[in-house]
User: What shape does this take?
Amino acid sequence: MTEELHNEEITNEELLPSSSPSSSLIELTDINKYYPVGKEQLHVLKNLHLTIEQGEFLMIMGKSGSGKTTLMNIIGFLDQSSDGTYIFDGQDVSKLTENQKSDLRNKYIGFIFQQFFLIQSLNVSQNVELPMVYEGTKKENKRRKIAEHYLGLVGLEGKENSKTTELSGGQQQRVAIARALVNEPLLIMADEPTGALDSETSADIMGILSDLNKEGKTIVMVTHDNDMKKYASRVVYMKDGLFLTEEEYNNA
Ligand SMILES: Nc1ncnc2c1ncn2[C@@H]1O[C@H](COP(=O)(O)OP(=O)(O)OP(=O)(O)O)[C@@H](O)[C@H]1O
Assistant: This one.
């Protein structure tokens, strides 16, 4: 959509993506992550390399404790690796300040979580408008119009004024997807997005994500659910902080 709706001036020019057509969206090299536990260092991510291209639907599959969330947090600039390099659309993330990282995160990454994380004191539209508030879109009617567009896209037209507590789990996740889309991010990150939903509703939500990917949106999703693999264009398998081949993973 919506060039006409998204014509706000971008205030921080140096944070624009490099838009070099040949570069990958994400390049992680030699990534390690240690957590201090008492006097020891717990080695949670072990020398990982991962490249993600624009337009992929990458699924990171692994059992509980394998390091998926830690890796997602690094990719989404919510945490940093202990060492290694992370290039996001041509920019070295380690050279960015915390403020620049949060600007980049708000502009270029949309998050979807298992528990939805909607704000109950706000109505549906206000929840979807939040990333635009953070980005500085001041005109309320403009935010509302964009929110309506994305709520329509996820099948929630007419629910703008509803309370989030009046919605089913699947509807709440649709609100979260609309919220993840409003700033037209380069990347959608989904952490177990169907983990709190029944299988029919899960299929609906995965259908929406799949359609978004077919329209060109890059998606990275973590899951422990083998049934989700069919939605992915590529699957990477994790165990104990390492990437495994599918065969190694199935035999582990
Ligand atoms: N802040 C922390 N401090 C110490 N250890 C941590 C911390 N966060 C995670 N860990 C440990 O790091 C390892 C990987 O955790 P992580 O949450 O990334 O795994 P996961 O694959 O996402 O698991 P789950 O599916 O249960 O969320 C686990 O052993 C976990 O206990």
Notes: The chain has one domain: 24-248. Residues 24-248 form a domain with the Rossmann fold fold (CATH 3.40.50.300).
